[in-house]
Amino acid sequence: MQTHSRLDGQINDMQRQVDRINANPAWRNTPHAALYAAALERTRNQIEEATSLEATLDALMFNRLAQEKSLDFLGFVANWLLRVTDEKRLHPAQTIQLPLKNEVPMEWRCLPQFLFEIITDHMLYVMRYKFMKAPLMEGFQNSSVIGQDKSLLLLLSPF
Predict the structure, then answer these.
(1) Which end of the chain has the smaller Cβ count within 10 Å, N or C?
(2) What is the C-alpha to C-alpha distance for residues 131 and 135, in angstroms, rounded to an integer?
(3) Residue 11's domain spans which residues?
(4) Is 100 found in the same domain as 116?
């Protein structure tokens, strides 16, 4: 997700570097011309690879079925985490009573932080991507992925 967000900037930076070197043809008559030419070729290959990766990630984001499956799985993980938090282990059959106890259960303390970050980062990324490239989320309104009350996505959405 972070890679996809940075790709545009990296591609633009590399293209500016190629344009800057090509704008000054004086290097072609220097002893270092072979090094410049090799660097240009490497940079062009990197631009092509980055553009291909960006197109692949865009295709994945536009694949509605892949996003539904991903969000379904992350919803399952979020429900599991809430069940671990619930003393009675009845979530989602019964709503968790708030506020939670001040004492954090040992099972909760032992969970790695990235488990929480993956869920929030992915959902925030999908929501931001929705606004950057709108057709992605069309049709999700009636999907079981978001749920009836849409509270989780509304809570995580920065917009």
Answers:
(1) C
(2) 9
(3) 1-62
(4) yes
